[in-house]
Design a protein that fits this description.
The protein is mainly α and 109 residues long. It is built from 4 helices and no strands. It has helices at residues 2-29, 34-51, 59-82, 88-106.
Length: 109
């Protein structure tokens, strides 16, 4: 159950951080306004809170592993929200990152 909880928390963190950054981007780069920016900033703050809920207590380990989730999640977000089509190198790199996440977080210690 701990691994499933951890994976769910990584997923929630990815939606909050990537979504928050995307909202700020939209607010500034696409001229959607301060409301979008404000919601994005709140989402980014919520990401920070969600990251603290991981079962492992090591900040460096959590953030290092989340980096791999962020890479894969960012490509997925771009596909869904912006019509981005990753090439085989994007996909391969994201898979390598997710393998790294699994090694960092779920290896026996």
């Amino acid at each position: 159950m701990t691994v499933l909880r951890s994976i769910a928390l990584f997923g929630a963190a990815a939606v909050l951080e990537i979504g928050g950054a995307w909202l700020v981007w939209q607010g500034i780069r696409e001229h959607r306004g301060w409301l979008w920016i404000g919601v994005g900033v709140v989402a980014l703050g919520a990401y920070g809170l969600v990251a603290t809920l991981q079962p492992d207590a090591e900040f460096g380990r959590i953030l290092a592993a989340y980096g791999g989730v962020f890479v894969a999640g960012s490509l997925a977000w771009g596909m869904v929200m912006d019509g981005f089509r990753p090439d085989r190198y994007d996909v391969t790199g994201a898979l390598v990152c997710l393998v790294g996440v699994a090694i960092i977080m779920y290896s026996p210690r």
